[in-house]
Write a structure and sequence with these properties.
The chain is mainly α. It has one domain. Helix content is 73%, strand content 0%. The chain contains 8 helices and no strands. It is globular and about 50 Å long.
């Protein structure tokens, strides 16, 4: 069987495979929120409860992608008005957030290791799962109804989230070896947010030209 088959529309939109992907992402989302439990509790106790939506970055990204898969499994009979915009914004958030946090988490783990942090089996598991987030959304963006407007709104959310993270110090907890490099991590995060907008934006433009 040709490897290209696994990147084809017939394979990626196969309902059995979509259901498998949906279940895997749903379970990963739940696990992600559990992973953030300690930081969520700390945020409520030390910071403020209203900051909670800005804390669990990766599981929220996978939640958006999980919801986006539902649109592929159950396409709305009408694609206009509220349905059109709600679908587009969820898919846009799925795209930019999955690219950003999929790459960010992997890069931070590797960065921490370079600085002397010890990698464990959980480190490799997290790198594999986060890279999968970025890869899967890049494979599925061509089937999404993302618009330039909603992509811009999703980018605005990334920038808001970054600003909240590094203004109130509620960014994802870093490896101990990076605790003295928060400013460098901050710059990297903003740069990655920008890249996570530019890449899908260019893909959308190319798709329209095709």
């Amino acid at each position: 069987m040709n490897v290209s088959f696994f990147f084809s529309k017939s394979f990626l939109l196969n309902r059995s495979f979509l259901w498998l992907l949906f279940v895997c992402n749903l379970l990963g989302t739940i696990y992600g929120y559990i992973w953030y439990d300690a930081q969520l509790r700390w945020t409520v106790e030390v910071k403020a409860g209203w900051m909670i939506p800005f804390v669990p970055d990766s599981p929220t990204a996978s939640l958006f992608f999980t919801l986006a898969l539902l649109y592929l499994l159950f396409p709305p009979p009408v694609h206009r008005g509220f349905i059109k915009w709600s679908r587009s914004i969820i898919e846009a958030l799925a795209v930019v957030c999955s690219i950003k946090y999929g790459i960010w988490a992997t890069a931070i783990i590797i960065w921490g290791a370079i600085e002397g942090d010890t990698l464990t089996w959980q480190s490799y598991m997290l790198m594999a799962s986060h890279l999968a987030m970025a890869i899967e959304v890049l494979l599925y963006i061509r089937f999404f109804k993302v618009m330039k407007t909603t992509l811009a709104l999703a980018f605005a959310w990334l920038l808001l989230n970054d600003t909240m993270d590094y203004t109130f110090s509620i960014y994802p907890w870093l490896p101990t070896t990076l605790h003295n490099q928060v400013n460098a991590v901050k710059l990297f995060t903003y740069a990655l947010s920008t890249l996570s907008f530019i890449v899908p934006f260019m893909m959308i433009l190319k798709k329209k030209e095709a």
